[in-house]
Amino acid sequence: MRNKLLASTLFLAALSPFTAVMAQTADPAVLTPERVFANPSLAGPVARGVSLSPDGELVAFLRSREDDVDVLDLWAAPTGEGEPFKLIDARALVPDAGELSEAEKARRERMRISQRGVVEYSWDQQGRYILAPLEGDIFLASREGGAVRRLTETPADEIDAKVSPQGNFVSFVRDQDLVVLDLNGDRETAVTTDGEGLITWATAEFIAQEEMDRDTGYWWSPDERYIALQRTDESTVDIVPRLDITGGGASVVEQRYPRAGRPNAVVELYVHDRQGGERVKVDLGSNPDIYLARVNWSADGRTLYVQRQSRDQKTLDLLSVDPATGASRVIVTQRSDAWVSLNNDFRALENGDFIWASEESGWKHLYLYNRDGRRLRAITSGEWPVKSLDGVNQQTGEVFFTASMRDGRELPIEQQMFRASLRRTVTPTPVTPAGGWWSASMNRTGTAYVGNYTDMDTPAQSGLYRADGTFVRWIEENRLDADHPMYPYVSRRGETTFGTLESHGETLVWQMTTPPGFDPSRQYPVVMQVYGGPGGGGVKKGWQSSTSQLLTEAGYIVFRLDNRGEGLRSAAFKQALYLKMGQPEIEDQVLAANYLRSLPYVADDRIAMMGWSYGGFMSLMALTEPDMGLASAIVGAPPTEWSLYDTHYTERFMSTPEANVAGYAASDAIPRLPNLTGRMLLLHGMADDNVILENTTRVMDAMQASSIPFELMLFPGQRHGVRGNERQLMQWRTYLDFLDRTIGTRAPAAQD
Is pLDDT above 80 for 5? Predict the structure, then answer.
């Protein structure tokens, strides 16, 4: 193995000779960047956001338009006879989509929504209506007859719109206040009126949206009498001036950004009584420096359940709240020496009991409690984690959940849906077949579900199933036949294999895809794709991305390892990085690099890594780790010093900068830059409001101050991801050109 620092100059976007050859190839089976980032999508007709009506008789889903993959329409299909039909045509209703408000742009960025058109929708619990926000206004589709009614047409954006549980009202947030529209008389009522400046009602704060998987700030009671809503005061949060640089100029955004160790917004919870108009404050305890994690109603609407998380995230309390008075009491507490993970697996049952998940055994499992918080029994158990609670049939006592498990043993690369029991602890029974990756969306009664499936040879498909797993009908079969947009390129898909490595008593899973025409007697360069951080986990038996095929077409072996800390696995596996982010993860990637170099068909001096966000952090840390010996790395939007990142995420894994000085210092990329083993391509969006551009400019400054050459690509107007076919095409042309010059056909090592 040879380690060397290869000088480079600032790369300006251009079509390299390598990618030009690919674009002009005579072989129509060769996949090119130009085809990947064009319409129609190579993924085929994939149904997104699929959900069943409450009675299970209609399925709604989002589908990209054939003429523009970045615009979504709302479709529906009967669960019995009949073909799918378009319920809301985004272009027909709003032909000229205007500019979204900054609040809505930020909200969509937090939710990772990059498309326009109908990007979200919701049912009322009666199944009579589907509510769909569209380009800042709200439309209501009636299930009977399919008529679409426009509810708002205002200069302001109406965001986080919902149909009330019984279908009598529509609610939304406009100009930082909560508004309720009576569908019987089209009369609007402002629930709050003082939302302005730094005070916002009924909207999840930045931290909740970005890091806590909570996208809403208000909750209807089942009987429509009460609305629980949060009030957010951002005056305590530091202002982080952020340059928002676009192609047309720059502006300074005074962003309220709660960095690690600094104050959060003050979040309070209230309950509004629609009958009398009163509003009471919920008692969340004497310490205001907490997180409002989750809010749920009991089935009868008489109890409000609130999850309160401590600032250090080592304690999670479940509060039982009287909605009439706001009085609360703690009924269940979860604790951890590291952190307590949040989940969306709380389910209130009609008899007053509830289901909640916990990792106290070392693995996430489901438990049944009575209304006072007394645990009745474990619903699941074993050395494998429940991924999600999918549904409950309260008549039969069946509980449905997804897990990566086979025969009672953890199997991280597959996922199935299983059935357990409310009434006794039993061995879970598989509902879906083994061998691939399943996710499910169940109706409220637990009698039917939409199953989403993929494997190595099957693009994402969606079907309707009975609760016992019996297939009913396709929603989107997405058959890989001659009419599928990906079909011409399937013959050149590389072969993918899976394996494991052992690290500190933990089993790490990996996958490797070889180029078309792979010859084990030759040596190939390798691209290590990485995320590496908490909540990731990319190694699975699922359909591989078309961008991965771009890499194999270019002659690279593509390799991915899920290191310790990554993926939804045991508490011990996830907590291996506690207080030392960037250390065990890189140690595991070094293990993977050494394994690659042990293979006779790997060119040991031509290994690169690429990643974005936490993956960008990993790529930068790996490129500055001598034991990795990388020839190059693509570093996208990297957090480069964790005290610059937000509170809930960073403190969960690293505590505060004051309490963990050594851990923060060890994860700072700047002191490591003299250890660069190869060339770096650094990329970042110039309007990124998540990983602030300062993370990258400090690397730029340090590299220039030390006269270390590197390559740079900045994206005007882009936030934490690069959006749109044109820009993503340019992004991947840049990737391929850089890799070709550092580990590919034009790399010096390839010519020795």
Answer: no
What gap in Å lies between CA 393 and CA 370, rounded to an integer? 17
| Residues of the chain by 3-state class (helix, strand, coil), percent to 5 | 20, 35, 45
Residue ranges of the chain assigned to CATH 3.40.50.1820:
19-40+486-751
- Residue from 224, 214, 103 nearest 171 by CA: 224
Q: What is the DSSP letter of 626?
A: T
Is the model's pTM score more than 0.85?
yes
Q: Tell me, what's the pLDDT at 13? A: 34
Structural tokens at position 109: 């960025």
| pLDDT tens figures, 593-603 | 999 999 999 99
For 46-190, CATH number out of 2.120.10.30, 3.40.50.720, 2.40.110.10, 3.20.20.30 equals 2.120.10.30
- Residues forming CATH 2.120.10.30 domain(s) in the chain: 46-190, 362-476
Half-sphere exposure of 734 (CA within 13 A, CB side): 24
Q: In 3D, which of 223, 88, 75 has the Cα closest to residue 148?
A: 88
At a CB cut-off of 8 Å and minimum separation 6, what does 99 contact?
none
Report the 3 state secondary structure along 295-327.
EEECCCCCCEEEEEEECCCCEEEEEEECCCCCC
The pLDDT tens digits for 317-356 are 999 999 999 999 999 999 999 999 999 999 999 999 999 9
Q: Which residues contact 66 (CB under 8 A, 6 or more apart)?
A: 39, 40
What is the reported pLDDT for 7? Answer: 30
> Which residues are catalytically annotated?
613, 688, 720
Tokens, residue 691:
């990983």
List the one residue out of 168, 171, 163 whose CA is nearest residue 188: 171
Protein fold of 19-40+486-751:
Rossmann fold (3.40.50)
Rounded mean pLDDT, 67-91 = 81
Q: Give phi and psi for 204, each to the nearest 5.
A: -60, 135
The CATH number fitting domain 362-476, selected from 3.40.50.10750, 3.90.1150.10, 3.40.1080.10, 2.120.10.30: 2.120.10.30
**Residue 50: predicted pLDDT:** 86
